[in-house]
Each structure stands twice: as C-alpha cells, then as structure tokens.
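INFO batch 0412 | record 1 of 1 | parsing
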Amino acid sequence: MLLSRLTRPWAVAVCALPVAALLATAAFAPLPFSLTQPGLTANVLGENKGTPVITISGAPVRTTSGQLRMTTIEATGPDQRVSLSDVIDSWFRTDRAVMPRDSVYPSGNSVKEIEQHNTEQMQESQDDATTAALDYLNLSDKKVKVTLTLADVGGPSAGLLFTLGIIDKLKGDGNGGDLTGGRTIAGTGTIGTDGAVGAVGGVALKTQAARRDGATVFLVPKAECSDAKSELPKGLRLVAVTSLKGAVSALEALESGKGSVPGC
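INFO prediction complete | emitting tokens
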C-alpha cells in the first residue's frame, strides 16, 4: 500500500490533499442557506416613500404623535449564491444570521412565484389587520374604509403594527392621548381577524433594526421572547404580547404608568 511506504508526515500530507480539495470545493459551492440582517423599519403612523401608510375615510381621524415602527429583515435573494465562506463569516456576527433557505422562501418556487406569494401574504395581513382593528373598535367596515400602503415589503409580519396604527389613528388611548404615549415603539407579529398575535421569524435581527431607528419599546410575540432576548440591544424594552387586546392594554399601561406591562 502506498501509505505503508511513507513516513507519518508524508502520510498525513497525502491524506490531507483530498480533504483540502473537498473543503475548497465546499467553500465555493452554493449552499441551501439565506444570509439575513436587520432590514428597514417604517412608521405606520406616517408616510413611506411619500405616501401615507394608513389612509382612513368614513370616520374622524386623529393627529398622532410618536411612532409605531414595523420591522423587517433583509435576506439574500432566493436565487443568490451563498458559499461556505459566506456562511462562516455570518455565523460569528451578531448582526447577521444564517437561515435555511426553505424557512425564508417557499421551496421549489421561482423568484416570480415567491414575490407573488409574499405580496399575497402582505395583502391578507392588511385585510386581517383592518378587520381586527375595526372589530376591536366596534366599527363597521361598510362605513369605514381603510387603505394600507407599504412599498417593497412582503409577508404577514407587520399585521400587529398595522392594527395598532389603525386604532391609534381612530381612537388613540381612548382618553384623548396617543396609544404610543409619544414614544417610538416598534414590533412584529402576525394578526388574526380574532386579534390573536402570531409568531414570525428573525426577531433578534428585528430588535436591532428597531433600536437603530430610535425605538425604546419592542412588541414581540410571547412565543419568541427567548429569541428576542438573545441579542437584545441596550435601551430596548421588550413587551410580550399574545393578543391585540393585550398589546393595547400594555401600551396604555406604559403611557399611564398604571397596570401591568408583560415583559419577556
């Protein structure tokens, strides 16, 4: 055998050659991962790219102060090549995350189909947010028309913030004040028509985006408290929520200094 004729250093060197070749190949081969980072945030009480995010007709609308910022993550495209070196570089950074591509994008779909899917999810989220908000306020969707416009964002994770924005514009805290208490509040979470708040992904990155853009309070689905605390930026307070009613109550308690504010 060849190895029996070699000294130990030479044998190790010969064995290392195919391993090194495999590692070199892996370093440049595309892998089934997406690299993610903190994305944009948008104040749903204000404008995005010159257009109001929330437009309401058929009911008096309040002038609000403070901000309600929905949060996002940015991910490499579904057709973008991710190598082992990219994964290793991102793995050791707190402002990056490596996620299975299938957890970010539907498996087996084309880029066009994925974009369509995300657009449909956003539209459904907006419809559910409108229904949940108007039901909470005991208003009829036949009389009150709500239009939600947020360019270049897809998926359902802004549902909770859309709902709270509608409520703040129509009712505020119910006592003439703002639901935000004048603060910059960020958050994430899906919303059901029954007001249930659902979990989303990338919470640890979204908290970083929120703090970067001035938020001091972050509304997080209770089931994702552990993820939210993992890389929590200094100066950002987590508020755990499971329902629209609970989220509103927590914000009212923050403003008044009375009542319970559930943390993580």
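INFO post-check: The chain has one domain: 38-76+107-256.
INFO record closed
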